[in-house]
Hints:
The protein is α+β, with helices and mostly antiparallel strands. The chain has helices at residues 53-56, 287-299, 314-323, 350-367, 388-403, 446-461, 488-503, 545-555; strands at residues 12-14, 17-24, 38-42, 61-68, 76-82, 85-86, 88-93, 96-101, 108-111, 119-126, 137-140, 143-146, 155-156, 160-166, 170-180, 183-192, 197-202, 208-212, 216-217, 233-239, 243-248, 253-256, 259-262, 265-266, 269-273, 304-306, 326-330, 373-380, 408-412, 428-431, 465-469, 508-514. It has an 8-stranded parallel β-barrel with strand order 25-26-27-28-29-30-31-32, surrounded by 5 helices. Strand 23 and strand 24 (265-266) form a beta hairpin. It binds beta-D-glucopyranuronic acid.
Amino acid sequence: MLYPISNKYRDLYNLNGIWRYRFVPDDYVPIEEAKNTEPMAVPSSFNEIVTDGAKKCYSGKVLFERYFSIPLRKDRIYRLRIGATSHKCEIYLNGKKLGEGINGFYPIDLPLYDLKEINRLTVVIDNRLTQHTLPNGRIIDGKQHIRHDFYNYTGIHRDVLVYSLSEKHIEDVVIKTVVDGDYRKVKVEISGEYDSLRLKVIDEKGKEVVDTDESCFSIDEPILWEVGNPYLYTLVVETDSDEYREEFGIRKIEVKDGKFLVNDKPVYFKGFGMHEDFYVIGRANNPAVTLRNFECMKWINANSFRTSHYPYSEQTLELADRYGFLVIDEVPAVGMVNWEKCFGEGGADEQTLALHKSLIKELYERDKNHPSVVMISVSNEPMTTEKESKAYFKEIFDYTHRYWDRPITFVEAWSADNSYVAEFSDVLCVNRYLGWYSDHGDLSVIEGQLTKDLTDFHDKYGKPIILTEFGADTVEGAHSLPAETFSEDFQALYIEENCNALDKLDFCIGEHVWNFADFKTNQGLNRVCGNRKGVFTKDRQPKMVAYYLKKRWSKKI
Ligand code: BDP
């Protein structure tokens, strides 16, 4: 699936702005223009715009509508592309159903037939999470229950674009790079309709370094894409009636001898689990916020992050390519935990499995060409202690390997001796909150317990380990000596204790602090206006611990 662009063959129109919205009953069909609507920003999460408490927590169907007109050119195909709506949605053009979106974090790309001079575009979103959605949730006595720790933001969260194509056009471009010693090749697969095809590669200085009609070619003395030192080439695909440009990097990823290798060199993952979350806009994509995230991560000497717990915007991945970050790309299989039954009847069943698989395939279709995407995470903290999880995840891992030629992982919250899933992972990603959710406030337990837990995993599975979550809620400006929980002093010592333990474990290949920044959650007794485990505040200013990490990560290779 190609991101829409504009050039001499392709037009692009942005439909972001102020739309109209209202809550609608389940059987609502937008045959006519919706009445009694109110203005709503796109992209945004409506929950952060409204001031009425009941509206903010609304669960059900929400309609978003606007009119648009664009110049219509002959012999053109028009398509609609919505970057993401949370969650499932139905899309209508002039009252006729065009199609559906199956998940809250993926693009929807649909053909637009019968465009008129003025068109009514209606998007009906259902924000309910159930046994058969991902994230997983339940509606109990009519009330939404979730088992994940981030706010169920609702809205059109990414750009709404209409674009045009020639009838004969490039459908998809797959770029694979092979690095094997001195053998370095670029293999390109183009799908679509064309009579003639030309491939060109332009380097960062704007120099054309390849001009060929062969789909497998080499670049003379190519510069590799390295962590923190990325090099991006641009592939230009030219056909008789279309042109597309896609950036790519040449690099090799391998898990070998207990190490994670990028271009045959071991890397240590330094960084964060994150969220797409900011004041007023909620989960909506915003280029300034995304860029600020990267500037903060560069400042603190991070080199990687996980898209916890869902795929982030395309813009985030483009910037990761450009900043040279390693990305663990996670699908939204979160919340599969602590229900009466998590797998099998009553839990994640055949229907959930089918959805889970299609989300892995769609992630591939969207993100395959990004050099920054070095590992795929198929789930966060599923209930791996249930024996039914084994068959479920065996199938998920096998399926993921069919698409992705990169290491595959999931994120484990349980322990080595009771996990039915850990054996399938190429790298073990483990979350631990020792001294926080257990032995609250006792820093002295961390080193011993973390060493034991991670060593048990390593002894049993012999795989490299990344500590993908560890952290302590911290209210900025709160200080206490001696250190007590929720103070900046405690967070600094807490992170340091964990890191000291990791330094002694040579099978550990990385640390991702939870979280990059404070984020919104449901209200709860242990949530002080949201989850406050951020190393940065929600407005992206450093807490005290940031200075410790900055120093540590400047040295740690
Ligand atoms: C972990 C979850 C993460 C939570 C975190 C926490 O993976 O989503 O936000 O706990 O409690 O178990 O802060």
